[in-house]
Amino acid sequence: MKLLFSLKLPLKLHSLIIPSLSIPTSLLKFSPPHPPLKFPTTRFPSPKSMATAMSSPKPLVQVKDNIELTETEEKIFHRLLGTLRHFNLQTQLRVAGGWVRDKLLGKDCYDIDIALDNMLGSEFVDKVREYLLTVGEEAQGVAVIPCNPDQSKHLETARMRIFDMWIDFVNLRCEEYSENSRIPTKQKFGTAEEDAYRRDLTINSLFYNINLSIVEDFTKRGISDLKFGKIVTPLPAKATFMDDPLRVLRAIRFCARFEFTLDEELKEAAACEEVKAALAAKISRERIGVEIDLMIAGNQPVKAMSYISDLTLFWTVFTLPSNTEPEISEVCNRLCIACLDATWNLIQHINCFTFSDEQKRLSLYASLCLPFRKFTFKDKKSKKIPVVNYIFRDSLKRKVSDAETVVNVHQVLEKFLSLIPLLVSKEEIQPNGFDWGVECADVPATSRIRVLTGLLLREIKDFWPVALLMATLLYPANVDYAQDLLNQNFELEKRKELFDVIYNETVKLGLENVWEMKPLVNGKEIMNILQLKAGGPLVREWQQKILAWQLAHPSGTSEECIDWIRETHSKRVKLDE
Asked: What positions does the domain Poly A polymerase head occupy (predicted)?
């Protein structure tokens, strides 16, 4: 029976999802009934159809049927479409990648990348800027980021700020490669389908066509993989990774972030030596560091680092100097992951203190690098440098302050471990072999715990809870917990209780912000009291003594402190005579 009628579509479709635009939407045909069809009053499905329906997997992820724009997004897209009308451009504007994915997952996204089918991003940005002037608005932050094929950045990107949101513009691409290189020998404007297949993952290959207000799935599996939680490359995984090896880390990051499943072919390609060599040779350490930072700051850092380890990428990412002392075992990466796992679980269970995002991030880095804390290497001047410093500054090209904080946390751990039993038992503290910056003999016995704890916390300031967290992993100091951590025999509740006790005791001592304490007597006043003509080591020594005195006498005044300095100095002079 032949059924025909045509349905006129509105000029603006409302966020439909279609697999491709190979057939113009205006030509789509639908069928109304001829004479009505008659069916039996009762009809049961066959056993075969029932079995098929029952065996069909159900989607694991809730994906929206359409994209709902925010008010700001509507205004931005309106300006872009206004630019097309103003200059009579035939350009198709498509939002690409992550924004489309996140919108379909019902998540907010402020990273809008727009792909153009017939012009460069810089050319279109110039048109937008000119159009905005005609409507009394001014473009902000216009910039062009050149391509860098040597680092697998093949496209020029133009940026501008519209309604306080950064928008990136690039052209759709199609590339040709020489036989022995993944650097394109020829680039030209591609179709949206060609561009979609050049993307890193199918879930990132979706487009939102601004002109038509529809979602386009040119790989015909982007929506499906999103619904079923699959991390898959549009083209064969190895070719995709050799095109841009950073995609290996991106695949891992998205897999951990969304708790999806890595495709088996993808895992095999990620672990192959050729891809690992390309990742080490072609991708800048800065770009690798950014990906690792996003994983560490993400919602599943342990899963992400575990994938990196399981796919044998750990030593490609976390490169080490060749002259490390002592030699680091190749299986050390397993202990790094175990320390990270224990710390992540501990942070989730601690209630007495809320870690800031920065404290949490550096806690995770500190734990990941904990097995390296006693390893060093020699620089060009034969100076011994912590290996952790190399990992941050050379392997990942992270901020100098990150390296300094983590190294400082590691360096105070032995002191922290020696204080824990005393803070727990509140017994009288005895001097030990550590350099506390002040002679314990100069401190009243009843105040030593407060003084030495305060001096320690002043060394690491805001990150003392991070150091305490690391210390709870290693306490007591005379026991090797490596095997327990590897076997996940961690006694989580016991560690949490230990953290709570030490943290609460520190608060009771009034030391939680002790680094903000100002000295009662400054350097110039010390010089006058001691009748010194110039500063130097003696002044610095007295500054440390004064801090210790203030910690021992939290209610002391500057006058009382000055009297104590004179009395103590006088006694020392008499002893030296």
From this structure: 93-231
